[in-house]
Amino acid sequence: MVKGPGLYTDIGKKARDLLYKDYQADHKFTVTTYTSTGVAITSTGVKKGELFLADLSTQLKNKNITTDIKVDTNSNLITTITVDEPAPGLKTIFSFIAPDQRSGKVELQYQHEYAGISTSIGLTANPSVNFSGVIGNNSLAVGTDLSFDTASGNFTKFNTGLNFTHSDLIASLTLNDKGDTLTASYYHTVSPLTNTNVGAEFSHSFSSNENTLTIGTQHALDPLTNVKARVNNYGKASALIQHEWRPKSLFTISGEVDTRAIEKSAKVGLALVLKP
User: Fold this and answer.
1) Which pairing describes strands 51-62 and 196-205: parallel, antiparallel, or unpaired?
2) Average pLDDT in the 64-75 region?
3) Which of these, 14, 6, 221, lies nearest to 117 by C-alpha position?
4) Helices then strands (H, E): number in the chain?
5) Residue 226 class from Cβ within 10 Å (0-12 exposed, 13-18 middle, 19+ buried)?
6) Which of 124, 131, 189, 269 has its CA 20 to 30 A from that of 138?
7) Which alpha helices (DSSP H) does the chain contain, by range?
8) How many CB atoms lie within 10 A of CB 239?
9) How much is the pLDDT for 127?
10) What is the C-alpha separation between 225 and 72, in angstroms, rounded?
11) What confidence score (pLDDT) does residue 2 get?
12) What CA–CA distance (Å, rounded) separates 245 from 100?
């Protein structure tokens, strides 16, 4: 894929991953196996309180075509077909959920040295149309993300964003929810050798006049073990430790406490990923 500004979803992604990825309060177990023909089969189970959810998915790759099929707890059949680079920089994604006849969608992604575009349209009589575009380069990028409902004739989403990347830092600014939420984020690489990074995200809601500030960090104890921690201005503090005990197989334990209500029990989440 061509290097460039990426897609709109890449704006602020490094900070979001640092602050939110792998944190959970549930118990999750994932097992992946491969058949002799190279088909990947993944089973996932999640325990949310007293509720247990499970799904079974399979992935088949044939040259530049990847087919993903998943069956969830509600007996929905989710199918995604991805064609990678039918032309340079282009990706085509077709998805639908059975038995929902209105779920079909076609998405096109195109990445260029100075632009990244993603557009999708629902396969219905009155579809929703989504478009996001970014222009710039590896250092500076600006973009927009919008959705239009052809049935009502209204825009259902309108976001804009700016991303600045330097050698060891990434800063972004986005205006979301049709101009109601302003979010600024910052990601800084302190030490590449120990995978030590720090990040922060500040959000302001104009309608409610509420502010949310989250700061976090991560550090590699050794090449196979990472720790992360975060805290926000509402007193919620979280931490996790993740260990790769064999290639691609991860064990993660995370916890969250409310420092303003210490008498409440801490939330503890576990995740186990097994891959051959």
Assistant:
1) unpaired
2) 94
3) 6
4) 1, 19
5) buried
6) 131
7) 13-20
8) 16
9) 94
10) 31
11) 60
12) 40
The pair of structure tokens assigned to 47 is 């325990």
3-class DSSP assignment, residue 146: strand
Residue closest to 104 by CA, chosen among 85, 76, 80, 68: 80
Residue 255, phi then psi, degrees to nearest 5: -145, 155
Whole-angstrom Cα distance, residue 212 to residue 176?
15
Interatomic CA distance for residues 271 and 49, integer angstroms: 15
- Give dist(CA 213, CA 208) in Å, integer: 15
Q: In the block, which residue shows the tokens 């707890």?
A: 73
- Is the whole model's pTM more than 0.85, yes or no? yes
Convert the pLDDT of each residue in 208-253 to its tens digit.
Answer: 999 999 999 999 999 999 999 999 999 999 999 999 999 999 999 9
Q: What is d(CA 40, CA 18) in angstroms, rounded to the nearest whole number?
A: 28
User: Average pLDDT in the 5-28 region?
Assistant: 95
Closest CA to 97 of 125, 62, 68, 126: 68
Q: Decide: helix, strand or coil at residue 8.
A: helix
Instruction: Determine the Cα–Cα distance for residues 70 and 270; give it in Å rounded to an integer.
Output: 23
Confidence of residue 174 (pLDDT cuts 50, 70, 90): very high
Query: For residues 80-101, b (16+ Cβ closer than 10 Å) or e, as one string?
Result: bbbeeeeeebbbbbebbbeeee
